[in-house]
């Protein structure tokens, strides 16, 4: 069975039980660097996946761990160490979030769509357009209640709204 994460930053850990002895050509030593500038040296095999690294070194926290290599977030848990071209002493930056994060791009996309559909900002332009249309209807039907200055203000607001709407939707 894999060893639990070490509280000592410089202790070598093996990613799989079938790892060979330290110094063997079949294993790679990676440096896991954390936000508090501590490091942990771990020994992995080239065929180990990112998901395997997370499960081995962060048991129970796999969904909360983000690994970053050369500024790129490693989202695909099926990528192998060799496919990422990791070599001895390569640095993987680790961020452990207190919240569970979606792991697959499809989950992240679904979450983004849900947030976009709940965004009230998307409804502001149609709502403002509805209010302007209602005010124009009332101004035409009940013109006796509108002073000329109110009509001028309504026309000015309509022009400004039209310019804003065209500039926003023109992109």
Assigned CATH architecture of the largest domain: Roll
Largest sheet: 6 strands, mixed
Shape type:
rod-shaped
Q: If you average the pLDDT, what whole number results?
A: 76
Question: Could you walk me through the main structural features you see in this protein, from its secondary elements to its overall organization?
Answer:
The protein is an alpha/beta fold. It has 2 domains: 13-101, Roll (Ubiquitin-like (UB roll)), CATH 3.10.20; 120-170. 39% of the residues lie in helices and 17% in strands. The protein is built from 4 helices and 6 strands. A hairpin with a 4-residue loop joins strand 2 (28-34) and strand 3 (39-44). Helix 3 (121-141) runs antiparallel to helix 4. The longest helix is centred in the C-terminal third of the chain and has 23 residues, at 148-170. Residues 1-24 have low confidence and may be disordered.
Please tag this protein with its features.
4 helices; Ubiquitin-like (UB roll); cytoplasm; 2 domains; alpha/beta; nucleus; transmembrane helix; Ubiquitin-like_domsf; membrane
């Amino acid at each position: 069975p894999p060893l639990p994460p070490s509280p000592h930053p410089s202790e070598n850990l093996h990613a799989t039980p079938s790892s060979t002895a330290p110094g063997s050509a079949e294993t790679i030593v990676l440096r896991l660097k954390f936000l508090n500038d501590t490091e942990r040296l771990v020994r992995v095999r080239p065929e180990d996946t990112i998901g395997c690294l997370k499960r081995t070194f962060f048991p129970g926290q796999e969904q909360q761990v983000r690994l970053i290599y050369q500024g790129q977030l490693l989202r695909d848990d099926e990528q192998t160490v060799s496919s990422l071209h990791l070599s001895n002493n390569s640095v993987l930056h680790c961020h452990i979030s207190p919240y569970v994060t979606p792991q697959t791009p499809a989950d992240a996309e679904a979450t983004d769509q849900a947030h976009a559909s709940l965004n009230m900002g998307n409804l502001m332009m149609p709502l403002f357009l509805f209010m302007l249309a209602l005010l124009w209807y009332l101004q035409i039907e009940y013109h006796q209640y509108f002073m000329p200055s109110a009509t001028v203000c309504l026309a000015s607001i309509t022009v400004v709204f039209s310019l804003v709407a065209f500039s926003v939707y023109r992109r």
